[in-house]
Amino acid sequence: MRRSNGFTLVELLVVVGIIGMLASMLVPTIRVALAIAEANVCLGQLKGVGTALQLYRQQNDQRWPWIANVRSDWSKVPTGASRDQPLPQDNTDPGERSITALMFLLVREGQPAKLFVCPSDSDAVEDTQVRRDHDGDPETPMEYYGDFAGSRNVSYSYQAPVRRGDEGFVNGVADDDAAGVIVAEKTPAAGDPAWRPDALAADTPIETVRANLSPNHRGIGVINVLRVGLDVTQPRRPDVGTDLDNIYTASGRRQTGARDGVSLSVLQHLSARDGFLIGPVADANQP
């Protein structure tokens, strides 16, 4: 009897099963590869933010983005609260602003709003309603928006712009500290008022380390960081401030053991060397 050259049903099912098993093994690898690619795109965007900051400073007497605020406590001002209120042209106090208003100054200078949306941030959406003047007439003076439309338009956090000093609140950024962090992934505390970081000693379990990372790239265990010197890095831990402090907490202690009294409040930001980044702030009651 002549044997058929085709597959039997059993052989076909075996082949299909093997292909399915191989595919299931490849899916996690593909997901990780995509996550790494997105993290690298995000890192490239931070380089763009660094370039934008450099241009801003060149045009503003080497000042970092800053808006006067009588309260000084940026962490308790909800993002987007002053969206439709134009910034005054005479340098008078514009009232309460969010931390993201500082980043929005770069958008006002011509940077695209999508620069501040990380592709790995599933909660973020581009602010597509940015207008540079209210009536669209190029002959009228510019009346810029003061902020992004909401907290979901920003995937990054910014160095606390104020800190307590001998003479009250002063600028929170130290220009001579090139290793300090000026922008990084959004804080793990965004949207979670109860979040408190654990100590990050050398032997801290990787699960604890990742729990203290930004949600943007927590799956692959990295964060993207832009330093005051405008170089970018991609560390795997959040304790990468000048004194190895956690950039998401207001404390200058080194991350070498138990930490008491860790604070997430701008009011406890005591030193310009303390890398403390905040934003986006989604809730006015968030600490």
SSE blueprint and pairings:
Elements: H1 9-59, H2 100-108, E1 156-159, E2 162-165, E3 168-171, E4 181-185, H3 206-211, E5 225-227, E6 232-233, E7 277-278
Antiparallel strand pairs: 1-4, 1-7, 2-3, 4-5, 5-6
Note down, in words, how this protein is organized.
This protein is an alpha+beta fold and 287 residues long. It has one domain. Helix content is 23%, strand content 8%. It is built from 3 helices and 7 strands; from the N terminus they run ααββββαβββ. Strands 6-5-4-1-7 form a 5-stranded antiparallel sheet, covered by helices on one side. Strands 2-3 form a two-stranded antiparallel ribbon. Strand 2 and strand 3 form a beta hairpin. Residues 282-287 have low confidence and may be disordered.
Report the count of strand segments.
7
Shape: globular
The H/E string reads HHEEEEHEEE
| N/C terminus separation | 82 Å
> How confident overall, as mean pLDDT?
78
Largest beta sheet: strand ordering: 6-5-4-1-7
Please state the CA-atom Rg, rounded to the nearest Å: 23 Å
Q: What percent of residues adopt helix (DSSP H or I)? A: 10-25%
Outline of the structure:
The protein is an alpha+beta fold. It contains three helices and seven strands, in the order ααββββαβββ.
Task: Give the key terms.
287 residues, alpha+beta, two-stranded antiparallel ribbon, globular, disordered C terminus
